[in-house]
Amino acid sequence: MVKGSVFSFRSFYKLLTTTIVLLVVAFVLFLDAAPSVPPTKAEYLDYADTVNPLLNDVKRVFAQNNLQHSLVVTKPQFASLLGFLQRAMPGFSAKVTLSSGQGRLAFSYPINIFGITRYANVLLVLKDADKVFIDTLTLGKVPLPGNAVLDIVSWGVNQYTRSEIATLAREQVVKVAFLPGQAQVLIHPLKDFMVALKKAKGNLSLDQDEELLARVTYYLYFLAYEQSIAYAPTISLAEYLRELMLEAQIQSKPDTAHLENEAAILALAIYAGDRRFGSFIGIDKVAQERVLPKGTVVTLQNRPDLAQHFIFSAAIKILSDQGTSVAIGEFKELMDRVQTGSGYSFVDLAADKAGVHFAIQLAEQDIAADAQLLLSLAADESVFMPDTSALPEGLRRDEFTAAFGQVDSATYKAMVAKVIQRVNATPLAKL
């Protein structure tokens, strides 16, 4: 018995020692003390307005899914998308290089382990080919067999979805070609792939928050059949929020006010924003049909666009995190600087930031009930929406550059700080 115990202890000790050694080796080999890519400069976002043509091309690929398409992505477009990721993921930095025959992507991301910050440094090199061909893949100090890793990832995705969707996705690529300053991808018609993707999605048994689904569905039906809001062509967002918060107070228990608030925000995003928000959380199609009646527009400061900015930002905050929702709002404004867009608007940005802060306050357990009470008594929008007077908007690229220079210039930061100061001055923010 004693010998067995000693043997078991020795075996455990060896296993523990081996595990620790392997972890230390992995820590040293795969993670570095410094980023291989310096922090990405904010001016990458100055190219945001170049992304509009790319988005139009992507939409066309999906809309005309019975045709083969050639998708061209330029270096400014890549740079702008990387700039967005930096905004959404603090600490992330990346650099893309496009030359004849190959494309290089290097990126770094900080990882904190037991209070020690190390960096995951990745280098990915793709070559011209009639498929996605990885010439080089390096993680930290370790070179990896890129195409073998891609095969393993594809196998894993196929197993997880119980389909061949990853294999089919790779087969959609007819050709990848690199030229100085751009990458070109030739894509097979997507029609059959989209059918396969829908089937693969149906194979997934994703864990859903049934309580959240039930709450959101409840508030969707509440909004659809609420009689306290008089019909009118335009209705202030404050009216919907007042009725929603009155109902949320009724439905809340002492420790669930924040959960009711989150569900109410998502329901409002589906009802008065875009029904596709329902797909993100698994709301059934029947419930998703409970949307704002045709001929009715929800406004904020008498503007439908501000109501949309506010609602979307609040919902994205609930579904993701603050960094992502703020980055999306800023990126959208930078994209609008093109001549065909609405121009950069600090008023829109104020609505975005107010929506994010609104979601934060309502989802904070300690003040959720107080937020319900405040909004249920709200007589006007100033309780949650800041004053936007004298904020610049409608700025084209040349006008933006003349007034603020580059993104993150001192002048730009001062204007953003002014917007944030106004958001923080609202009664809701002071709870």
Walkthrough of the structure:
With 431 residues, the protein is an alpha+beta fold. It folds into two domains: 42-203, no CATH class; 210-424, no CATH class. Helices cover 53% and strands 15% of the residues. The protein has 17 helices and ten strands. The protein has helices at residues 2-30, 51-63, 75-88, 146-161, 165-171, 191-203, 210-225, 237-251, 257-272, 277-281, 285-288, 304-319, 322-335, 346-363, 368-376, 397-404, 410-424, and strands at 69-74, 93-99, 102-113, 116-127, 133-139, 142-144, 173-179, 182-187, 234-236, 297-299. The protein has a five-stranded antiparallel β-sheet with strand order 2-3-4-5-6, covered by helices on one side. Strands 1-8-7 form a three-stranded antiparallel β-sheet. Strands 9-10 form a two-stranded parallel sheet. Strand 4 and strand 5 form a beta hairpin. Helix 7 (210-225) crosses helix 9 (257-272). The radius of gyration is 25 Å and the shape is globular. The chain crosses the membrane at residues 12-31. Keywords: Membrane, Transmembrane, Transmembrane helix.
Q: Which descriptors would you attach to this protein?
A:
alpha+beta, 5-stranded antiparallel beta sheet, 3-stranded antiparallel beta sheet, 17 helices, 15% strand
Layout of helices and strands:
Blueprint: H1 2-30, H2 51-63, E1 69-74, H3 75-88, E2 93-99, E3 102-113, E4 116-127, E5 133-139, E6 142-144, H4 146-161, H5 165-171, E7 173-179, E8 182-187, H6 191-203, H7 210-225, E9 234-236, H8 237-251, H9 257-272, H10 277-281, H11 285-288, E10 297-299, H12 304-319, H13 322-335, H14 346-363, H15 368-376, H16 397-404, H17 410-424
Parallel strand pairs: 9-10
Antiparallel strand pairs: 1-8, 2-3, 3-4, 4-5, 5-6, 7-8
Helix pairs in contact: 3-13, 7-9, 8-9, 8-15, 9-12, 12-13, 12-14, 13-14, 14-17
Keywords: Membrane, Transmembrane, Transmembrane helix
